[in-house]
């Protein structure tokens, strides 16, 4: 589907292989596609708009204990 759309940013692309039950894969793909910018958001970004970063501000470190 993406291959048929002319790119605004050259030939940038990623390939992702998803393996699983078809209905679970479909749910994952729908969730992933909802992460993409809409055309309106892309236009806003090109005009200098900023967006809230959804990633956590802090990341907890796991214990570095060694087991022998």
From TrEMBL:
Domain of life: Bacteria
Protein name: Cobalamin biosynthesis protein CobW
Organism annotation: Vibrio parahaemolyticus
Lineage: Bacteria, Pseudomonadati, Pseudomonadota, Gammaproteobacteria, Vibrionales
